[in-house]
């Protein structure tokens, strides 16, 4: 468990003696268990202390039980990945892969890592799905205090069940793996010990088409003699509440949870023991009275089952589980990192409201749950925990924005002196907790927030001299954590938590600067492909539940924007190969409905520039701009995939849409229809205007901002483009004014009023009106935080050229300005870590840059005198590893080889 959102370890180039490979991955994951492909991709990153150093050649060997199964041989390539090229790998097998890299001087260094395969074939599964059998145990609730506290919605939720299987091992254990999944949520244990650290497994996918299974190593938990494996099974997304349709128990996929698992034990003599879920498993209700992702969880410590998953336990009153058979046709191996607890957040204050009732402030809005220490309670004492993001003016908990989500947990004490309560099958979005019924004095030491999110590897950090900007970046980061819970959701607190497609595609570039989200979005995109209609339309939310809308502009365009963005950032062509049919069918769908190339028809919900302020961006303009963008990316994907005819056809279509857009929406003065900020930003960002029209559009954009006293009006579709476009066209000062603004509407306004995450609405709370509309008012939502991309790319200056893939051709172009005196960032590209730091002091600008092996960079050094720039105390023209290019009036420009550079120049 990490203690903060920190970058993964990477070698310091200054401490190395030569070219070094690190962060070895299989299928973009670190030493994964149970991969589902027989030909995985193996990748690595590079670091070196020497300027100009690069990988001259590499060699990969894959081994099984010490024997070689594939040798790539030495390959004279710069690539930092290779697909396994030997015979297909075999199921349920551990592999070691060894990497050697050679620099131009012939020096070789080596590293190795491991991975294991899962079950490749359906007939390898012996497990059956099991569930609670109402015929053998129709009365599923224990007759203990049936007047327990529940809301109406909570009363519809059946208690989670405990399942166990005792078995004998007559030989020692050399390796043991559990392959497990559920229709619902599960948590496994073996011989009294929890298995793994994963939470909310198996995660949320479109269960109608695919259910992920996880693989766990339990070798050290088993022994000769009696052993027990067990699991607790809850409702989760499968049969619990999802979205706002809570008139009844939602049951979007099924009516009750089911478990499937297979333990495979290998013995030193080569034999194998398999213990799989079937009718021989027994089950019992336990202390968890109900558990639901939206509604909360109730735990009665008086009903604890003791060491129920340990040998020697008396399970005489447990009943057989219902055996549903072994249909495994929807099973897939997990492809992305699971949800985990990644951080503990201690309470910062406790306020006593009245006798036995407290308000606890964690100081940070987060997604997760509370771990509560209970001291001095008597048996039967009930403690209620209500969760909320904000407090009302009188200091009470604000919960109106939760809508029908109860977000309430209960703990009933067994009177054991000191007890701990932490739910396992629910997640809340909250900063504050109202704790009611606590006997004695509650202190900050008794309450800890447990942060839950998909454990995507941290990829980037940004810091600067302005604490307001640092707080903004922190808010963006916490918004990402709180909403990347198995899928990219819109909010973690209310009765929604859905994977809205526009939110995801708009925020993706910012998300990728902060974390390695390739497998996270690839996994989500598979469900997008599954949900595409026969006509080619894409639903508004993925996985597809609740809404019946398909084909909304900017939302459905995630079909093209997400895969192309992932390819550009991570350089894995397989993303495009998988997505190509989806991309093509989507743009063809829009084209068929709009043969005049202005997207007016089949626009579904058409939300426009969602949550813009005081203006209405023309919806046909927005839709047509996105139509052009999708066609552009589809043509680009076709070129990468070698589909020359399709590339030409979609390229020609893009030109025609561009011409139609100008004819329809641009007037003689260069104004865009509607004259809104987003109306100008979209064609400027998407390349739909010629040079003359560009300059006019920029002029009108700036004029609008000035008329509004440098205040923004952009909603979801425009906000990510605002600061980058202003900076691109020479108005970085205006972008900085927006960054530092703390008037309504602005990022700074929410921060001034205590925000620790990005709000869904600019008017989530205002001094004039208090809380915004309760029908839609999340205080943890990442969309308006898409300005984070600009902080990394333009403030810190880490980006790549338009033609670059996988950050191989870097553009280092920081833009000092605003109130900042320094800024720095680090980012883990596919080839290695890049870092920048600039500082203004005493009339001098210093710029430090590190470029990883495998990449080159064009560096733009802001200066008042391009001729005076020095690197390492020497004139730029004589610096090792640099080639000076033609400067501009305000920047010195050079091409740089890998290495670390220190530039100085008059500011």
Give structural notes.
Helix content is 21%, strand content 30%. With 907 residues, the protein is an alpha+beta fold. The strands form eleven sheets. Strands 13, 19, 20, 24, 25, 26, 27, 30, 31, 32 and 33 form an eleven-stranded mixed beta sheet that branches. A hairpin with a 5-residue loop joins strand 16 and strand 17 (272-276). 54% of the residues are buried.
Question: Terminal Cα separation, in Å?
Answer: 43 Å
| Total E-strand runs | 49
Shape: globular
State mean pLDDT (0 to 100 scale). Answer: 95
Largest sheet: 11 strands, mixed
Estimate percent helicity.
Answer: 10-25%
Total of DSSP H or I helical runs spanning 4+ residues: 14
Structural Rg: 28 Å
Kindly estimate the percentage of residues that lie in beta strands according to DSSP. 25-35%
The residue ranges in which pLDDT falls below 50 over 5 or more consecutive positions are 139-147
Class from secondary-structure proportions: alpha+beta
Spell out the blueprint of helices and strands:
Blueprint (H helix, E strand, L loop, with lengths): L19 E7 L14 E7 L9 E8 L2 E5 L9 E3 L10 E9 L5 E9 L13 E2 L29 E9 L5 E9 L1 E6 L2 E2 L3 E2 L11 E7 L7 E10 L1 H4 L18 E9 L5 E5 L5 E4 L2 E5 L3 E5 L18 E2 L1 E2 L7 E3 L5 E8 L2 E6 L2 E19 L6 E7 L1 E2 L5 E2 L9 E5 L5 E4 L6 E9 L10 E8 L5 E5 L2 H17 E2 L1 E2 L12 H14 L3 H14 L26 H13 L3 H20 L25 H22 L3 H22 L11 H9 L5 H17 L8 H13 L3 H9 L6 H6 L12 E2 L3 E2 L16 H8 L2 E3 L8 E4 L9 E7 L4 E9 L2 E8 L4 E7 L7 E2 L2 E2 L6 E4 L5 E6 L2 E8 L1
Catalytic activity: Hydrolysis of terminal non-reducing alpha-L-rhamnose residues in alpha-L-rhamnosides
Organism: Kribbella karoonensis
Keywords: Hydrolase
